[in-house]
Design a protein that fits this description.
Keywords: Membrane, Repeat, Transmembrane, Transmembrane helix. It is a single chain. The protein is mainly α. It is 66% helix and 0% strand. The chain contains 42 helices and no strands. Helix 27 packs parallel to helix 30. The relative contact order is 0.06.
């Protein structure tokens, strides 16, 4: 729970406006899923290289080797020697012709060798899927007939060998007398191997090994592993989403073993799932899991996290896939209900029970929100929940869960807390009963250690979220009295943060403010406490207009910013918690605090004045830092201070810095945002003139060349008047559209007032 847990910049897949600190181009093509199921057909044995490892592949190799030996054995005997064996006088019981036997053995052996080589090649190369289904049966029948012929030829070859022995005798001058015996032996080997191979194929049911595009990949998951490896290389959200859609769509198709594949690639699927943008894919994935497979998922620790992630993102598809999700959820709920006690006793399965309960009041995850955006937002944006129809029987399911929890001998705080929170949103009566039961059975004497405990803190974070007698009479007074012990504690700071985010009573915030603003406490909070708590405290005070200006001034004093020098406030905050303030320009913590200050509806005078006084060199140095580039992009995109800065001389300050920033890996994103946010032709001209001086350098630079394309600098240098006219036209169109939007907003407001 330390600040080192924060990863910055934010993970991709959230706010698309957050510039990744990587090259903005990805040239590799995305992998295509294997061929469609409709283009294949069932086969009686494995295909691909895996065929050689099966019993059929091994027997094929045995048959090929045996037939080669037969051909060699029969071939070493010339036709003249065979005729000589037939012409020599002698007594023998063998009535076969050595000449005709030799020729028949060679012909049928060569035919069999060609057939087996053909069979092996079409299975290894998977060409067998392009042949009609009747081909398998015909080929099996032909080979079984051929096995019978080999039996006859083996007997004939044995008779041929006897004939030569009887007629010529052991002292005969003819060579290769043992060739007939060798041919007979290998013919019998070929016959036995052929019968075993093709009888097994005949007994195999095609449906049991029906062709799947993922055959040979389902077991070793090669396709999914490679797809995830490519996913990690993608730098564009569009590429990530396209790849995630393809992979999950393939895994949830009717020809795939969704359960088996997911359990084998749980880590990969857990990372891919947040990037799936097609609603039907997630619904199909959930719908493919039977109740038994869901039970296997929950008991499999790795696969259970995939299921939990799936339940997190399914609320986003309820508007279009409600029926399928409902039927799938019923199977999951029934599975959890039947195995509730087992899951509660097993380690690591409680979070699935919690996710199942939470889905009864499904939270819609915004695609433009991530961990850091939620932190900087500070609870300003209200959460959105999907509404479930009466068919879901939500209250009935909550009552069933309540009974199961009461009967269960295992007390899982996280599961109980999730049930409490869900009931708090849906049923006040049920929530009150659960709180009463909780306090009577487990927490009859609540103390500060309960708030600081890793497990029980889940419960008390919920108790401060919804109104109850226990919250007003026990928890609030306990927090006020024990604030020193709580706010710096690794778990207690999360409890205070949760309390601040769920507050709706300004009087309580006033008391907490008076406690935390104390000079010594606030100093420890700024320099030692969890940065999340400081940011949340700043944002909540701003939202409730609770001594916000005073808080910012106290922050200035605490970070030892010179009282008379307001201009240095932002640079000082950016160095917050720096190991070496002289060399370290920006810290992760400082960047987050400045973002919190900039996100205010009305930016305080100290922050506004400090930003206005920044020089071009200072802005450029901030932009060249990854965290600083992200900060400045957020300033342009989401801060109410940006329109004020844009009207001032912000663009003019950077006149000599554009080339330097355009060639920097981090700052190039800031330059791009500056270009897009310029609303006057003069601002665009300033940037174009400054960058046009170094056009050749910019065009050859890895990062800057994309900015030259965006600004069309080549056209500016060759045809400046035409360039100016085209951008003036674009700006006029944008201005007209903005005016239309403003008019529509005004009309909507008037209608609301009339109603």
């Amino acid at each position: 729970m330390s600040t080192s847990d924060l990863r910055y910049p934010a993970a991709s897949g959230g706010d698309s406006s957050i510039p990744p600190v990587v090259t903005p181009h990805y040239g590799s093509s995305l992998p295509n899923p294997p061929s469609d199921v409709s283009q294949g057909r069932p086969t009686r044995c494995a295909t691909g290289v895996r065929f050689l490892k099966t019993i059929h592949g091994i027997l094929n190799i045995v048959i090929i080797v045996a037939l080669v030996c037969v051909i060699i054995s029969a071939g070493v005997v010339s036709s003249g020697e065979a005729r000589a064996a037939d012409d020599v006088d002698g007594d023998t019981s063998a009535k076969v012709s050595a000449f005709h036997t030799r020729n028949a053995v060679l012909v049928f052996s060569i035919f069999g060798l060609i057939a087996m080589l053909f069979d092996t090649i079409i299975h290894v190369t998977k060409l067998v899927h392009r042949l009609p289904a009747i081909f398998d049966k015909i080929f099996i029948i032909v080979m079984l007939v051929l096995a019978g012929i080999y039996l006859i030829l083996g007997c004939c070859a044995a008779a041929w060998e006897k004939k030569m022995r009887d007629k010529l005798g052991p002292l005969d001058a003819l060579s290769h007398k043992g060739a007939a015996a060798s041919a007979a032996f290998f013919l019998f080997v070929t016959m036995i191997a052929t019968i075993v191979d093709f009888v097994l194929r005949l007994l195999n049911r095609s449906s049991s090994q029906s062709y799947n595009p993922m055959t040979a990949l389902s077991s070793n998951t090669k396709y999914y592993k490679e797809a995830y490896s490519l996913f990690q290389q993608c730098t564009k959200n569009e590429d990530r989403q396209d790849l995630a859609n393809k992979v999950l769509d393939e895994a949830s198709s009717s020809g795939s073993d969704t359960s088996k594949i997911t359990r084998a690639c749980s880590r990969e699927f857990e990372q891919l799932m947040p990037h799936v943008t097609t609603p039907s894919i997630l619904a199909s994935f959930f719908d493919r899991l039977t109740q038994d497979e869901l039970d296997e998922f929950i008991r499999d620790r790795a696969a259970s996290f995939v299921l939990e992630k799936l339940l997190t993102y399914l609320p986003n598809v309820l508007s279009t896939e409600s029926e399928r999700v409902h039927s799938s959820y019923e199977r999951l709920f029934e599975c959890v209900r039947e195995n509730f006690n087992d899951y509660m006793q097993e380690s690591g399965t409680g979070h699935i029970i919690a996710s199942t309960i939470a889905f009864l009041h499904p939270l819609i995850i915004s695609p433009n929100t991530n961990e850091y955006e939620s932190l900087i937002d500070g609870g300003q944006t209200a959460k959105k929940f999907a509404e479930l129809s009466s068919d879901w029987n939500v209250l009935d399911k909550l009552r069933q869960m309540k009974k199961l929890i009461k009967k269960c001998s295992v007390h899982n705080e996280f599961v109980y807390a999730t049930l409490l929170r869900t009931c708090g949103y849906i049923s006040e009566k049920l929530y009150t009963k659960l709180v009463t039961h909780l306090c009577e059975k487990y927490y009859s004497n609540i103390n500060v250690q309960h708030l600081l405990d890793k497990c029980s803190s889940f419960l008390f974070e919920v108790l401060v979220e919804f109104p109850s007698n226990q919250r007003e009479t026990i928890l609030y007074p306990l927090v006020f009295d024990q604030i020193d012990e709580i706010y710096l504690h690794p778990i207690g700071n999360f409890f205070i943060q949760r309390l601040l985010l769920t507050l709706n009573d300004k009087k309580v915030l006033e008391k907490i403010y008076q406690l935390l603003i104390h000079e010594e406490r606030f100093g420890k909070l700024v320099h030692e406490g969890q940065i999340r708590l400081l940011i949340t405290f700043i944002r909540v005070c701003e939202r409730f207009s609770c001594h916000y200006e005073e808080l910012v001034n106290r922050l200035k004093t605490t970070i030892h910013c010179t009282k008379n020098n307001t201009n240095e406030f932002i640079p000082c905050v950016l160095k917050l918690r720096a190991d070496n303030a002289d060399t370290q320009l920006i810290t992760k913590e400082g960047s987050l605090v400045v973002q919190a200050l900039l996100r205010a509806d009305k930016v305080d005078s100290l922050t506004r004045q400090s930003f206005l006084s920044l020089t071009g060199e200072q802005i450029a140095s901030i932009a060249c830092h990854p965290s600083g580039s992200h900060l400045l992009c957020q300033l342009i995109l989401k801060s109410n201070l940006w329109p004020i800065l844009r009207q001032k001389n912000f663009y003019e300050k950077l006149n000599q810095m554009y080339t330097k920033m355009a060639c920097d890996k981090a700052a190039c994103w800031f330059v791009t945002q500056l270009w897009k946010s310029a609303i006057t032709i003069d601002q665009k001209l300033e940037m174009a003139k400054s960058l046009a001086k170094d056009l050749q350098i910019l065009r050859s630079h890895t990062y800057a060349r994309f900015i030259t394309y965006e600004m069309n600098l080549t056209a500016f240098c060759s045809r400046p008047d035409q360039w100016k006219r085209s951008f003036e036209t674009v700006l006029k169109k944008h201005s007209l559209l903005d005016e239309l939007d403003d008019d529509n907003d005004k009309r909507k407001k008037k209608k609301k007032k009339k109603t």
